[in-house]
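Exercise 7. Given the components listed, write out the predicted structure of the assembled complex. Treat all entries as one system.
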Amino acid sequence: MTPFPLPLADLLGKWGAYAVYLLIGFSFGYVLEIAGFGNSKKLAAQFYFKDQTVLKVMFTAIVVAMVFIFLTAGLGLLDYNLVWVNPTYLWPGIVGGLIMGFGFIIGGFCPGTSLVAAATLKLDGIFFALGTLFGIFLFGETVGSFEEFWHSSYLGRFTIPEWLGLPTGVVVLLVVFMALFMFWGAEKLEHVFGGVDQRRSPKWRYGAAGALVLVAAGVLLVGQPATADRWANMAPEKEALLAERAVQIHPGELLALLHDRQLKVILLDVRSEADYNQFHLQDAVRLPVTDVLAQVPAFHFEPANAVFIVMSNDEAAATEAWKLLVAESVPNVYILEGGVNNWLATFADADFQAAYATSGSGDDQLRYTFAAALGDRYPAAAPNPAKFTLEYVPKVQLELKRAPTSGGCG
Amino acid sequence: MTTYTPTETDVQPTAVRIRRVARDYVNPYFAGILLGLVLFLAFFFTGNGLGASGGLNRILVFFEDLIAPGHIDRVSYLLEMAGGDRNPLDSWVVYVTIGTVLGGFVAGWRNGRVKLETNRGPHVPVRVRWLMAFLGGTLMGYGARLARGCTSGQALSGGAVLSVGSWAFMFAVFGGGYALAYFLRKFWN
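Answer.
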């Protein structure tokens, strides 16, 4: 399987990758122009029901791209987890959208189309593009006064299938039907308000609509890979890493990582609440294995220097959590070797060992009996790296972040 | 129906013509299919969709940084893009934006639509149209940053990957346009 997304910068170099983006932009601008989006009168006509080109082009593009994205994701060619899905900030999005709607009808363009209009020397497009720059400038100067609103109603990576609680394939099919219904309505409006004779519209559009429904039905049939399917696809390769112990890191390495200021180390403690309350590493977050998948979208928003360390008392539960995270394409996930037990054996002093250590069975149970649930208020929860000299083989290698951290708007 | 025929008002006396007669625009469904394929390929190869306002934003910040670097370093929103020795142009979206301009020009040139003119309603003076275009652009630019994306980056790209926020945004854009359209009917018709 080819890696997704393509590591363009590795394959083609930085400028080669930018050339690909230039080509994508070129195709984008070309299609906008031939669709008539460089002409403000044609764009504004959308809002007077006479010419529904804007709606037709936009929704056709959305549904065509959508069916292919989810078809290839279903076939395992594209990893939906690594696709940039605009995070939802509900109210800033709606208010911004309304302002843009006003701008659209007042100015006759949107930012992308004004670039195409300006490129074809439409003076109104040039004035609009200048206005856009001025608006962006104003935003940069004023956002400080309403930063709280701008970051409000944040729902993260929130998709329609999650919102409706429906399988992705069903949503894809519903969106296709909704788009076809809108096209039908748009053609009626053009007939009534614009006097357009739809009998003269090309007949192939019925065939195209049929093909679209068929592909969408295919998406439904193929389905989207569940975590178990994703793991099954990569199991041979990843099981080998576990067997070679390439991803189980020594407590000493973890301590060094925690004091590496270039990294953001995220400690995930998958043990029971009771064990966690007895003792946990400083800054460790308790995340039961059953809750791991719910956090995956948030983990994908972490910066490129994030390293995830999962830990249980020994390794069994941590390994389960590791498999889930790796299956969901979370980068840079490691297991604490020997778990919390080994951590305590390494960093707790002799008094501590004498007071609390018990002989354990090694079945992922805590091998210490604490007198009180003091959590991270033991010295061993945050050992001083200067006091320990440990020999270990470093295993953490930062994987180049594959999931985009910002979309086309950042 | 879907073809657009230029009317008298489209032709300004100052028109610089490269092709004598402008070709008709293509069928909107055909254009939509092409645009959908471009969008899909962008996602398929890069994991990212399309964008326009992000590129404009970074180009603007680049010039701001040239003029007032100290100011950039004091505003956290600008700092992310151009703080210290960061180059705001070092981002894929800038190249998409440059490509969009080039692609638009080539398409217009091949079809005889590169022409110095102002598209406007039949009863609107040119200068008023320019002013309104600037005003509309200002609102668009401001709204696009507030909504974290424009029609391309949010509506098209986010819509295709089924982001809830992008769909809410898209309906808000159409809602805003339709809400104000009635009051501007004399301006466009």
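Discussion: The two ends of chain B are 18 Å apart (CA to CA). Confidence is low (pLDDT under 50) at residues 8-18 of chain B.
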